[in-house]
């Protein structure tokens, strides 16, 4: 493994960091999340038109940059540093890889150029609150989360030459504003029970979308109801959706790990700057040994998470899957860094208006969506058969 960055990777990080420093301060973030869309369209345009970020991991044949998951994860480290509220994760890390992997030639040619240009945003919608299960992050993806032919979930039935969907998804990232939804639905009844993916346009008749109040407002979520909505099958009926979603889960975990590391690094930086300025008993509190030890522990944890995230990014581009473990390490580091940040900022740190709370909410929100940490690690251990055949003595 070569741990060094290429000149291109360094340029991606530098350019993106500079843009976000100017356009995505704490006040900008709070203003953006209060809009109906939940993000700043001008910032999204800048990321798409000037940096090509939505298409960074898409082939050049579809208008993309032609990079890999590695570059995408490095870019997310910078967006995570500023908690940039954009539809980038839902579009570039969830929807676009599925379109590329499973779509027909016509579907790829018709949709991916718009995603790469930023003119089309997209997301993945799975029934209920089963996003982490569908992506096989915290358990086996057995397909039962799609409805299994029973009441609930999202059901698909044939309607002439097309399909109709009926059901509900409760945790759809950017689902209220996405121009395209990739909906996982159960088809075939009990006889040929299977999970398929369908393309649903954001303006389709019978589609009802409502933004939900979320703990982390910088990662908007929506409830999506499908009432006999016309849909187009993604790929064909023989497509192995479960395997594709499992592979997507590791790549998404790798990207999220990079994002969490960027957020943890930034909140640690904010805390270090504050303890150098705040005085108590006539001296900066950062000079107290107890404070130094606490921040040193956080620093070590953040650096360990960064190493894990970088390795996962490298491994993803080389056919290995360790994203889930890297995500567990990164989420734990972010939770620790944000909690210590609130504590060491003292009274001001406990006010909702303080910047540290944005990072704390991101840490808690991501664990609710993609974790928790102990389940990420447990599932990774089970998948690797780490403890197979061993007896545990209490």
TrEMBL record:
Keyword Oxidoreductase carried by entry: yes
Domain (Acyl-CoA dehydrogenase/oxidase N-terminal) ranges: 6-118
Keyword Lyase included in the entry's annotation: no
Cofactor(s) recorded in Swiss-Prot or TrEMBL: FAD
Gene3D superfamilies xref list: Acyl-CoA dehydrogenase/oxidase, N-terminal domain, Butyryl-CoA Dehydrogenase, subunit A, domain 2, Butyryl-CoA Dehydrogenase, subunit A, domain 3
One annotated GO molecular function: acyl-CoA dehydrogenase activity
Keywords: FAD, Flavoprotein, Oxidoreductase
Chain ranges of the Acyl-CoA dehydrogenase/oxidase C-terminal domain: 254-380
Matching Pfam families: Acyl-CoA_dh_1, Acyl-CoA_dh_N
InterPro entries to which the protein is assigned, alphabetical: Acyl-CoA_Oxase/DH_mid-dom_sf, AcylCo_DH-like_C, AcylCo_DH/oxidase_C, AcylCoA_DH/ox_N, AcylCoA_DH/ox_N_sf, AcylCoA_DH/oxidase_NM_dom_sf
Stated family: Belongs to the acyl-CoA dehydrogenase family.
Name assigned to this protein: Acyl-CoA dehydrogenase
Origin species: Streptomyces resistomycificus
Lineage of origin: Bacteria, Bacillati, Actinomycetota, Actinomycetes, Kitasatosporales
């Amino acid at each position: 493994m070569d741990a060094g960055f290429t000149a291109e990777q360094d340029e991606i990080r530098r350019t993106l960091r500079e843009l976000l420093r100017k356009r995505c301060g704490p006040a900008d973030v709070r203003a953006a999340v209060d809009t109906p869309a939940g993000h700043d369209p001008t910032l999204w345009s800048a990321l798409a038109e000037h940096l090509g970020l939505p298409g960074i991991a898409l082939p050049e044949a579809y208008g993309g940059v032609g990079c890999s998951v590695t570059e995408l994860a490095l870019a997310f480290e910078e967006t995570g540093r500023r908690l940039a509220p954009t539809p980038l994760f839902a579009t570039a890390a969830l929807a676009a890889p599925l379109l590329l992997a499973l779509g027909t030639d016509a579907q790829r040619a018709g949709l991916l150029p718009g995603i790469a240009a930023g003119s089309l945003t997209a997301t993945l919608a799975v029934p209920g609150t089963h996003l982490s299960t569908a992506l096989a992050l915290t358990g086996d993806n057995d397909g039962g989360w799609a409805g299994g032919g029973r009441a609930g979930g999202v059901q698909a039935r044939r309607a002439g030459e097309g399909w109709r969907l009926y059901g509900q998804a409760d945790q759809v990232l950017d689902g209220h504003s996405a121009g395209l939804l990739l909906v996982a639905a159960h088809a075939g009844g009990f006889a040929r029970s299977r999970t398929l993916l369908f393309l649903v346009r954001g303006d389709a008749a019978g589609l009802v979308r409502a933004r939900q109040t979320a703990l982390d407002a910088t990662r908007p979520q929506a409830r999506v109801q499908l009432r006999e909505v016309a849909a187009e099958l993604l790929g064909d009926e023989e497509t192995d959706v479960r395997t594709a979603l499992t592979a997507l889960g590791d790549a998404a975990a790798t990207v999220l790990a990079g994002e969490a590391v960027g957020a943890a690094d930034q909140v640690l930086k904010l805390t270090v700057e504050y303890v150098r300025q705040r005085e108590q008993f006539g001296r900066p509190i950062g000079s107290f040994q107890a404070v130094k030890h606490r921040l040193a522990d956080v620093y070590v944890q953040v650096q360990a998470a960064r190493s894990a995230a970088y390795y996962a990014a490298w491994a993803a581009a080389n056919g290995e899957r360790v994203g889930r473990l890297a995500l567990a390490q990164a989420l734990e580091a972010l939770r620790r860094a944000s909690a210590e940040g609130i504590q060491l900022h003292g009274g001001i740190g406990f006010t909702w208006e303080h910047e540290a709370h944005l990072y704390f909410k991101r840490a808690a929100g991501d664990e609710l969506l993609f974790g928790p940490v102990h389940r990420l690690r447990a599932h990774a251990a089970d998948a690797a058969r780490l403890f197979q055949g061993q007896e545990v003595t209490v």
